[in-house]
Write a structure and sequence with these properties.
The chain is of the alpha+beta class. It folds into 3 domains: 4-221, Rossmann fold, CATH 3.40.50.620; 233-326, Uridine Diphospho-n-acetylenolpyruvylglucosamine Reductase, domain 3; 331-469, Phenylalanyl-trna Synthetase, Chain B, domain 3 (Phenylalanyl-tRNA Synthetase, Chain B, domain 3), CATH 3.50.40.10. It has 15 helices and 21 strands. The chain has helices spanning 4-15, 32-44, 61-74, 93-111, 123-135, 140-143, 173-183, 199-206, 209-232, 235-242, 253-257, 261-275, 283-293, 320-329, 415-421, and strands at 24-27, 48-54, 79-83, 116-118, 149-151, 163-165, 248-252, 300-303, 306-310, 314-319, 333-334, 344-349, 352-360, 382-384, 394-397, 403-404, 413-414, 433-437, 440-444, 448-449, 461-469. The strands form 5 sheets. Strands 3-2-1-4-6-5 form a 6-stranded mixed beta sheet, sandwiched between helices. Strands 11-15-18-19-20 form a 5-stranded antiparallel beta sheet, with no helix packed on it. Strands 7-10-9-8 form a 4-stranded antiparallel beta sheet. A hairpin with a 2-residue loop joins β8 (300-303) and β9 (306-310).
Length: 483
């Protein structure tokens, strides 16, 4: 019979296959589970660093941090300790601690340029998680419990979401405790795990060996169902679950409507989890999306931290932090126009990228002055005579009441009417920029120039203005070439 240490070493080694030459970050509380995992990393010769959070919620928490730091010092393992701020007086204490912990992990793994994050969740934790999901009436993903390979629920400051590995997820707590005894691993006990005010502690107290095995079988069965649904998912929807965009997605309506009711509910709940860690993973979210599918373009939804808008052929969903961030990024600011021929300005603006190039060109042909849409969203390069610029140039989001005289028009028109006439998707319309100078609106990038910037016989140079929305809006950007 193999010993507990041997079983754990084999399990962790299999979980870290392909990462032996990488440095990992281990989240370590100082409890028996994470301290045994740290010892296992030493046994494997795996390069790793340790992250510990002192929440300051218990008088003993400083001793937990001291134990972790001392062990790391004794074994030459780099350690990073965060002393969390004051816990909120309302709301879930556990949710607050989890949010603090994962944000710290995300920033540390990015700062140290590490490969992934390890945590020491084990089979007993898995059984408790599934039991709690059953109580809440969880769907397939809820009953699947935790995944051995996932992603951190929060992104780093760079926007990247790092892998989260749980190499002990198939290992029983009793095996971990036996390994700790065999290895003489020091660890701390957290009495709050026995606090019956927390539902998980009650579930842990009432857990029997038989129920534990039933719950673990439920998790494996649900994981298999989830894998089958993922395999059967239309490729357009698979992309929404794997997108690098942290807090917004576009759902193609045709692909969504191909799914059965249960398959669609599973997909939408998984999508919510990918959008934001606090996203609602309940039936009200699924019902809201289903209602939006049956609503006319321009209709909206708002459920918890998630909002959405229906376009003609898709639904654009995003988190409220996304909307706030875009609002901050689209405040009016000065634009330094390119001064030399061939020079190009490129800067992020809201949900896209604004590019301005200065090109030589005396006369523009009729295609340059065309008012016809050049692709499915009316996006086209805009050409401006730089000699017509008056004063300082700025970029901002268009606003209600904005008017200008478009190229080829006899009178002024509202920007709102121009965008509606150009069939701009309702999800994109609020974020379209305008270039302005001291004389007024110069152009709506991607859509129309002002008449006063028409090329004339004496024109020697032109400014080419492009606006490229992010990939969640369009896969193809306008092509700015020399006229």
């Amino acid at each position: 019979m193999r010993s507990a240490p041997d079983l754990i070493v084999e399990s962790v080694q299999a979980s870290l296959c392909g990462l032996s030459d990488q440095t990992l970050l281990l989240g370590c509380s100082g409890g028996v589970d994470s301290m045994v995992l740290a010892r296992t990393m030493l046994e494997l010769g795996q390069s790793f660093e340790v992250a510990h959070v002192d929440y300051g919620l218990r008088p003993e928490s400083a001793a937990d941090a001291e134990l972790v730091a001392r062990w790391c010092g004794d074994h030459d393992v780099p350690v990073h300790v965060l002393r969390a701020g004051t816990a909120p007086k309302t709301g879930s204490l556990q949710a607050w601690a989890r949010n603090v912990r994962y944000h710290f992990f995300a920033e540390t793994v990015a700062w140290r340029e590490l490969a992934a994050v390890l945590v020491a969740h084990h089979a007993d934790d898995q059984a408790e998680t599934v039991a709690l999901a059953q109580e809440r009436g969880g769907g397939v993903d809820g009953l699947s419990g935790m995944s051995p390979v996932a992603y951190l629920p929060v992104a780093s400051v760079t926007g990247r979401r790092y892998r989260l590995l749980r190499p002990l997820l198939e290992t029983a707590r009793s095996t971990i405790e036996s390994a700790a005894e065999a290895w003489n691993v020091p660890y701390r006990s957290d009495k709050s795990n026995e606090d019956m005010r927390f539902r998980r502690a009650v579930v842990r107290r009432d857990m029997t060996a038989l129920r534990r095995e039933v719950l673990l079988r439920t998790a494996r069965s649900s994981q298999k169902q989830a894998e089958e649904w993922l395999d059967e998912l239309p490729v357009q929807l698979v992309g929404t679950l794997t997108s690098n965009a942290p807090d917004y997605r576009r759902i193609p309506l045709e692909a969504l409507q191909e799914l059965s009711d249960d398959h669609r509910a599973w997909y939408l709940l998984r999508l919510a989890a990918a959008l934001h860690p606090a996203a609602p993973r309940r039936r009200s979210w699924v019902d809201a999306v289903n209602n939006l599918v049956q609503s006319p373009p321009g209709s909206r939804l708002s459920v918890g931290v998630i909002e959405g808008v229906r376009d003609r052929e898709s639904i654009f969903v995003y988190s409220k932090p996304f909307r706030r961030r875009v609002g901050e990024e689209t405040q009016e600011r000065t634009v330094d126009l390119p001064l030399a021929r061939g020079e190009r300005l490129s800067e992020h603006f809201g949900v896209g990228t604004l590019r301005i190039s200065r090109l030589s060109g005396r006369r523009m042909d009729e295609s340059v002055h065309s008012t016809a849409d050049t692709d499915h969203a009316g996006m086209q390069p805009i050409w401006l005579d730089p000699a017509s610029v008056v004063g300082r140039v700025r970029v901002r989001r268009w606003a209600a009441g904005d008017r200008f005289t478009p190229l080829g028009a006899q009178g002024s028109t509202k920007i709102k009417a121009l965008l509606t006439g150009s069939a701009v998707p309702p999800s994109l319309k609020p974020y379209v920029p305008v270039l302005v100078d001291d004389a007024g609106i110069m152009c709506v990038p991607g859509y129309r120039a002002a008449e006063r910037f028409r090329a004339r016989d004496a024109t020697q140079e032109m400014l080419c203005v492009e606006w490229e929305p992010g990939s969640a809006y369009f896969q193809r950007a306008p092509d700015c070439t020399h006229p």
